Batch of 2 targets.
Target 1
Amino acid sequence: MTQKTNMFKGQQKRKSIPPNRHGKTPSIRKGKRVLKPSKVTKEMDADRELSKFINHCNEVKAATAANKEGGQLSIVKTQPDSSSAK
């Protein structure tokens, strides 16, 4: 029996485009798929909290700048109490 081309390690059979799809549009995937990491370390948690803090500060700065210019931008989501953090 001869060896198949798709039996080699790391290679997969490529999907071929059919000659006629009869008006069916190809499925388009946009953006990255979000996969949670298998291991969540304390360092990753600290980075996430830091990112949240920086984002919140940036949102507050943008809202105050917009209000000074006469806009009606305000922060809707309130930050939870930091005293109940782990």
Note: The longest helix spans residues 42-68.
Target 2
Amino acid sequence: MILKTLFHWLYKKIYTYNVFIPEENDYDDEIQDPTIVLRHQRYASRLYIVLLAVFFYILFSTILMNPQSRTSIVSSVNLEVYNQLYFEHNETLSCPCSQMTIIYRDFVSSSIQLHPVCKSTFVTQPWINALYFPNASIYGVADFRTTANAQV
């Protein structure tokens, strides 16, 4: 019997709950039916409570759901396994390799040829003498020998 009375009291409180009860000076000058105004206020109160509950549910569910990060070490990775992992976890995949599987000399070759500056024709004595040619103006403006003296 007490439980039935408690449910009836709770139903009555929820049914008559009104958040938007206006104060004395908030009433409009227009004459409106007070039962219609009270019904609209109760509907607005119920909508307000439902939207507030949905807002807090979304807020707390997004705050409480932290993405968990997990580190997994995969050994013996070949290209197929790496491509699958990259497809699934492309944003967070890292590969701090400490040991190379393929030796560099298997796919990299380097051939170094040094050209010493001292054997260049541009540092030989005939070339240097040509820079200081006394009659360079006889060759014309388009010839390098005409302006070489000024560029040294």
Note: The two ends are 115 Å apart (CA to CA).
